[in-house]
Amino acid sequence: DQQVKQNSPSLSVQEGRISILNCDYTNSMFDYFLWYKKYPAEGPTFLISISSIKDKNEDGRFTVFLNKSAKHLSLHIVPSQPGDSAVYFCAASETQKLVFGQGTRLTINP
Amino acid sequence: DTEVTQTPKHLVMGMTNKKSLKCEQHMGHRAMYWYKQKAKKPPELMFVYSYEKLSINESVPSRFSPECPNSSLLNLHLHALQPEDSALYLCASSQHGTGGEKLFFGSGTQLSVL
């Protein structure tokens, strides 16, 4: 049973526009949510996180929104840049365990 | 130094071989992790060491044996693996091993079992 789901395997966005990546979860015990970015042949790199007691966290071009009632979070990237092309993983934390979603491949087109 | 270094980068082994994967970090982190990632799947947690003690084993088969000789080093000993164990093995570390911490990942060891 997948506790963290990213239903869009891929997303294509034009450079300069907003990229919105979505994630749903089922376990209400998750206390933190994190986004990681992964390039080929590299390990995932931390991007941004949000505590379950907040509904928004912003860091430069990246903003994460959390809707606890809907068990849904999203990552907004604006403006999107070619270097943002990568696989993005949503992850949820319960104590020491980090559970990853399936990932969304984001492609930024010039 | 914000790096987690994993060696080797690639490993091919037969089902009767014994090999070890190594992971090292010098960030002073006290929690270290092994994850397994199959192609087009998310990383899956295998083991967590917190302050050099094994704190989580996600029901991993005994043919995988983790070892944490000190707070900077993490090994994964492999013995009698099966072809379905072929995957990318990722090591990660974090400051204390508490919830919500940023994990720093290595680039992984791509393992092929023949």
Any overview of this molecule?
The complex is a heterodimer of chains A (110) and B (114). Chain A is mostly beta strands. Chain A has strands at residues 4-5, 10-14, 19-25, 32-38, 45-51, 56-59, 62-67, 72-77, 86-94, 97-100, 104-109. In chain A, strands 2, 4, 5, 9, 10 and 11 form a 6-stranded mixed sheet that branches. In chain A, strands 1-3-8-7-6 form a 5-stranded antiparallel sheet, with no helix packed on it. Chain B has 114 residues and is an all-beta fold. Chain B has no helices and 11 strands. Chain B has strands at residues 4-7, 10-13, 18-25, 31-37, 44-50, 53-57, 64-70, 73-79, 87-94, 104-105, 109-113. The N and C termini of chain B lie far apart (36 Å).
Could you name the CATH class of chain A? Mainly Beta
**Major sheet of chain B: size, sense and barrel closure?**
7 strands, mixed
**Uncertain runs of chain A with pLDDT below 50, 5 residues or more?**
none
How large is the count of helical segments of chain A? 0
Specify the oligomeric state.
heterodimer
The SSE string of chain A, one letter per element, is: EEEEEEEEEEE
Summarize the amount of helix of chain B as a percent range. Answer: under 10%
How many structural domains of chain A?
1
Inertia-based shape of chain A:
globular
Low-confidence spans of chain B: none
| Main sheet properties of chain A | 6 strands, mixed
Termini separation of chain A comes to 38 Å
- Most extensive interface: A-B, 25 and 25 residues
Number of strands of chain A: 11
Share in β-strands of chain B: over 45%
SSE class of chain B: mainly beta
The CATH topology of chain A is given as: Immunoglobulin-like
Mean pLDDT of chain B, nearest integer? 94
Sequence of secondary-structure elements of chain B: EEEEEEEEEEE
